[in-house]
Fold this sequence. Notes:
By secondary structure, this protein is an alpha/beta fold. The chain has two domains: 7-215, DHBP synthase (Alpha-Beta Complex), CATH 3.90.870.10; 241-345, Rossmann fold. Helices cover 30% and strands 19% of the residues. The chain has helices at 14-22, 44-54, 72-75, 81-90, 124-133, 153-160, 199-206, 213-216, 248-258, 290-306, 322-333; strands spanning 7-10, 27-29, 36-40, 63-65, 76-77, 95-101, 115-119, 137-138, 166-169, 180-183, 190-193, 210-211, 241-245, 264-267, 280-283, 312-315, 338-340. The strands form two sheets. Strands 1, 2, 3, 4, 5, 6, 7, 8, 9, 10, 11 and 12 form a twelve-stranded mixed sheet that branches. Strands 15-14-16-13-17 form a five-stranded parallel sheet, sandwiched between helices. Strand 2 and strand 3 (36-40) form a beta hairpin. The radius of gyration is 20 Å and the shape is globular. The N and C termini lie far apart (62 Å).
Amino acid sequence: MNVKETLLLSAEQTEKAGEILRGGGLVAIPTETVYGLAASAFNEQAVANIYVAKGRPSDNPLIVHLADAKDMEACCLDIPEEAWLLAKTFWPGPLSMVLTKRPAIPSIVSGGLDSVAVRVPAHPVARAVIAAAGVPLAAPSANLSGSPSPTRAEHVISDLYGRIDAIVDGGPCAVGVESTVIDMRKKPFRLLRPGGISKEQLEEVLGPIEVDKAVTGSLSENEKPASPGMKYRHYAPKAPVLAVCGPGDASARYIASQIGENDGVICFTGREAAFGKARFVLPYGEESNDAALAHNIFDALRQMDKLSPEKIYIQCPDDRALGFAVANRIKKAAAFHVITVKPEESV
Ligand code: TXA
Ligand code: MG
């Protein structure tokens, strides 16, 4: 593809970003979860350009970002009562709902599916850009396909500079993992991707929901995932990754017993001393602080990748609250190479 001149915009230049989007351009914008690569959802050519800039497979659908919950009606059909209830409870915020697509949304947005995922982001800059553009914005994460999602403007610059029209710098993203994706088209409602709104929070409103198989394990060759994005290896550094689950003291001891001197560890803060032999040790938050782990995980994956270790071990949090999303991203980075270490026996 041709090299483009990429404008670097400040968080105040949202009018300029809106103008570029109205003209069919691509702009990376901060959201509360991760940076998104936005285009007008009604402009087929602009949306096609997103797939090219990211190197994204064309069957992997995009999330449409709305200014307001009532804009769901412009994009979706057969919206159930429960979707309005979730919108009222969690929007603006890190929740995407899959609903039946209106024909007005070009099929390229949803990778040819007859559904569409929508969300109202909470980040003030994202909201200002949507308002300035005056249209819903289709926006996947603003990384090259397969690399960790970008949670800082410099991550976007390193992946997409020269491939898109502009990048709006809004500083680091608060949440750090992507939105939760839930399919609202039939009951029981189904969690397709854990994210910034936890399963527990959703179940407080909806009662029990199902978790799609692709969330907890890799699908076999001929299985068709409900969310096409789940079938691709994601967030993956170059070195092989092993996700190590179980209590922090036990997983640290296991990693210390396995690790070679050219390997890296992404560990819970406070556990660094356990890995004396390892060259590359990156703490990413305390075991009990799932918000910190979410905030830092993608940056840690990118930093570790730059150090070129032979193998990467990652201490994985348990599946409670935001830990579910963090563990899912780590397991996907590990292509579901996961070891679960039992709690230490008390002495
Ligand atoms: O937090 C987020 O959701 C960020 C920010 C920018 O909003 N966006 C994001 O987009 O993570 P992306 O494209 O990286 O991930 C979207 C996920 C993919 O796994 C995709 O397969 C799924 O949502 N998805 C989108 N539309 C869908 C649909 N109609 N049916 C099922 N899954 C869908
Ligand atoms: Mg993505």
